[in-house]
Amino acid sequence: MTELNFELVWRKVKNLTIEILLAFSVFVLIVNTFITFSNDAALEENSNQLIHTYNVLQQVDALSIAIKDAETGQRGYLITGEEHYLQPYLAARTQSNNVLDNLKKLLDNPEQRKNLAKLSAKVAEKFDEMENSITARRNNGLNEAVKLVKTDKGRIIMDNIRLIIADMSEIETDLLAERNDSLDRQNKSSQVFRIVGSIFVIAIILFAIKNTRDQKASRLQIFENIDNNNRNLLLNLGHHLDITDEQAVTQSLITNLTNAINFISSVGEGKFDVEFNGLTDENKTLNQNTLAGSLVNMRDKLQQVAAEDTKRQWATEGVAHVGEILRKQSDNIEGLAHEVIINLVKYVKATQGGLFSLNDTNQHDTYIEMLACYAYDRTKYLQRRVELGEGLIGEAVAEGDTIYLTDIPTSYLRITSGLGGENPSYLLVVPLKINEQVFGAIELAAFHPFEEHQIAFVEKIGESIASTLSAIRINEQTKRLLADAQMQAEQMRAQEEEMRQNTEELQATQEESERRVKELLDVISDKERFIAQLQRK
């Protein structure tokens, strides 16, 4: 009886224990299942957040590029005053508004929304500043626009925009790091719970194995998606990663995002020689539509814009320098010619150069004469006469067109270095032309080719020299006409004085004649009275 009672009690205890164990197993299974789905959801959310971060960074970068394009269009218009230079500015303004709208849809973080509000205000302020300078240029000219630019307001606004963009990028990066840390903690907790739970869930081991396999397959699918998105959106190295190595997949994604941020920062600092880590000639074709390829294309375009800006600045400074020489030497044509050709040869890094002027003082003997020559770092005092249409100089003056040769005949150049060696191979002859009227030509020879912007620069200088020569000729002609007029006036005054003297002499002669006639009449009258008296007697 005692044994029976003990068995019953034992069975009850055993059943109760099994029920407890089963309930605990179910509880563990439920918790394990919950954790599994939480991890899956976290991974999926993390993947979405990564894409979200990429989209935000891409839009922020697009905004920076749009503002720089707007500044490029602004500078082009301020310098030239030509309306078509405003096309990049107008397109960038529309692009900036679109980007800000996209960011407003993407950002859900309160702090980021505050940053977006500040960014929108600064961008609007930046475009207002650029619009003011453009309006000043259009209505009041370059000097007024330059005054607005020199206030440095645009740079200060741009610095604020960069700070806000940097804060937004940092916040997105920090959020990404926090999500990755949370994901790592969840993974570790899940692994510990599985180990502990497996001790208590022996009865449902097969189910647990199946559940684990399903969970693993789901995780593998998620990491496979991450790997695919990493290759399709960020950087395609040309091969797949082992998706079972979760750390490698995650690290690859983080590495690519870090490389993208570093690349963007370097380009933003003007370091256009930076390379995107991992992007090579072998996989370049695979990354035409990825972030890496897009960023490299952006860098190339910005580099091209910077190079064009450098060329424009070079030409602007050169024109200003030569213009200052023309202004100071406007009353001395020989000094002007020497100073211009010396500075021009040095500025374009030519070997030698000459400045020729069309001499049409005698309409029956019009020819081209050399005003100044500079070669091999020395001024050459040469006299040279060229007939119209004779040689390249005569042809350039007669036709009014630029001539550029890349293979100069050995016998063409009359000046050599005197130290032996080869002669220059490239020759540029530019007419001094303004309003289709030619006043002479510039001749430059160099060992290196003349680039297009250098040729355009020399042509611009030719117009300035032609304008100055035209003004000098007008002044000289005016002086000659004034001298002739003064000479004629002197002659007329001399003739008037001579006529006055002749008139006075005639008047004196007339008065003398009248006096003599009067005296003769008086004598006759006296004689008549004398005769009359004799007759009366």
TrEMBL record:
Lineage: superkingdom: Bacteria
Family matches, as SUPFAM superfamilies: GAF domain-like (SSF55781)
Transmembrane segments: 20-37, 192-209
Keyword Lyase recorded: no
Gene3D superfamilies, A to Z: 3.30.450.40
InterPro entries assigned to the protein according to its UniProt record, in alphabetical order: CHASE3, GAF, GAF-like_dom_sf
Coiled-coil intervals, chain numbering: 475-523
Record key words, sorted: Coiled coil, Membrane, Transmembrane, Transmembrane helix
Pfam families attached to this UniProt entry: CHASE3, GAF_2
Domain GAF intervals: 332-479
Record's protein name: Sensor domain CHASE3-containing protein
